Amino acid sequence: LTAMAGPSMDPAADSTAQQDSLFSMMDVFLISLITGLFTYWFFFRKKKEEVPDLPKMQTVVAPVRDSSFIEKMKKTGRNIVVFYGSQTGTAEEFANRLSKDAHRYGLRGMAADPEEYDLSDLSRLSEIDKSLAVFCMATYGEGDPTDNAQDFYDWLQEADADLSGLRYAVFGLGNKTYEHFNAMGKYVDKRLEELGAQRIFELGLGDDDGNLEEDFITWREQFWPAVCEHFGVEATGEESSIRQYELVVHTDVNMNKVYTGEMGRLKSYENQKPPFDAKNPFLAQVTENRKLNEGGERHLMHLELDISNSKIRYESGDHVAVYPANDSSLVNQIGEILGTDLDTVMSLNNLDEESNKKHPFPCPTSYRTALTYYLDITNPPRTNVLYELAQYATDTSEQEQLRKMASSAAEGKALYLSWVVEARRNILAILQDMPSLRPPIDHLCELLPRLQARYYSIASSSKVHPNSIHICAVTVEYETKTGRLNKGVATSWLRSKVPEQNGSSSLVPMYVRKSQFRLPFKPSTPVIMIGPGTGIAPFIGFIQERAWLKQQGKEVGETVLYYGCRREREDYLYREELARFQKEGVLTQLHVAFSRDQAEKVYVQHLLKKNKENVWKLVNEGMAHIYVCGDARNMARDVQNTFYEIVSEFGNMSQPQAVDYVKKLMTKGRYSLDVWS
Fold first, then answer.
1. Mean pLDDT value of segment 47-75
2. For residue 629, what is the domain's CATH number?
3. Is 676 a catalytic residue?
4. Same domain (yes/no): 552, 472
């Protein structure tokens, strides 16, 4: 009854009941809110205080341990670490040889890529007994560090570390034809001393323009006695052959797991993914391959590589790197001479399980693939290869000859120079000329250096050709002293790349390497370009870009080209293109030296002298940028000497002042070189 009477209750009583109800609900709500906030605050605060401790330890400690060469050396009982700054593999090869040497003196060495480790740990090396750091540092370009030593170089410049407990030695790899000979080796040697480290042997300076191998051997034979004296150790005996890798032959293998020429990721050529670089090259289709010269013995060519859909970007002046393949006939002959089934699938596994380098090249693979894509079979082998191979020569006189050439004796060095280097004997020629030398093919594959990418100055502008990269190259082909015909690996291989619709035979694995060879920021700045022969390549790109800028309505400064070739009717490269650029008013001056069209040879430096007043005016008043591309040994040096003369004459300077003036232009980026030897 009461319940049924509810709706007809007095309004005042109803209102009071509602208020009571409301207050009780608010009380509950407030109490819940306060409790919730307190609970949230309590747990949140605890999380903030307690949780970070564990992740902090993980994130800080783990990577340091992973990238610590000190921890690795302690774990594996090493006391000598040999770091290498290597662009073409030679410094890495020297580092491996030095680390292998260590066992002869009761020491243990390891070769290390500075890119893979934290070099600030050098201050801790003294924690290891009889410890020593050796640096095999190549200089690249115009006094620059190699790609893998860039971080180390940056660290050295910024570091204020105390390296007083560090003992070190440096061997530099350079080329005297370049302006900044061995700059990286000299810098590392000097900077380590400044940071308090103790040099235990003098800086070695290898010269690739002379005999780099001999320079290294000479330094090495004096380096180890200095190490022995410093640490009070003695050689434990003769050099012995120690295998670094063990052979595993795969009889039952899934062919989808076998490398067929890829540089990094398995099947990367079938399933291409950007970004593309040295370890992940892009397979570019050759869309054009035409002969540039009209006559003569040489074959000069212009190739165009399609980079559509690759996301590859380049600037005029950059380099394109291509991975070539060895001539199949050379590969087959090595297989035949060693009586090997080249299609055997195998792996070479590092016997040092702690090493970061598990294989000398991508494995598993076949001997054919290794000899075609991964190993250098055309350059004369270094002395360490001859020494290791000597044990397999069954004829004692051949064995003695190989050992002698690998020795540090003057007679041995002279024999190596004449019989191997000057005769340009590659591994096949050595096997042919030494009938008793028949090494196991797996050991040969372990010893041969890696086949390196070849670099070419890009002959196009991305403003005009965003989807293609152009190459200008000359095929290398010559007869050796033994009567053999030697061919350049990359140029012969590129020559065979005939464009065809979706044909795999015209694919080129490539990537772009950035350069400092750049047009001025302001298009109105005059440029003087000097590039005889294929040295014209980057300037075709520069002129294309200046023409494009002019079409965009930009004010473009004087564009001057000094070009040289042998004969006007024979090898005048890009003649029509240059004539068109001149007609359009983009190429404001074109000076061409034909060296063999008259009795006296005429080169680009002679034309610079002829126009010296105009050259000085452009440099001094116009603030022109100077660019030199081509041969480093003669042309680049002669051109530079010509600029010294012009500056001295018109700037009223002494020879030393003129040299200083040109050096300052280089420092300011107004005199740039893209040269090779």
1. 53
2. 3.40.50.80
3. yes
4. no
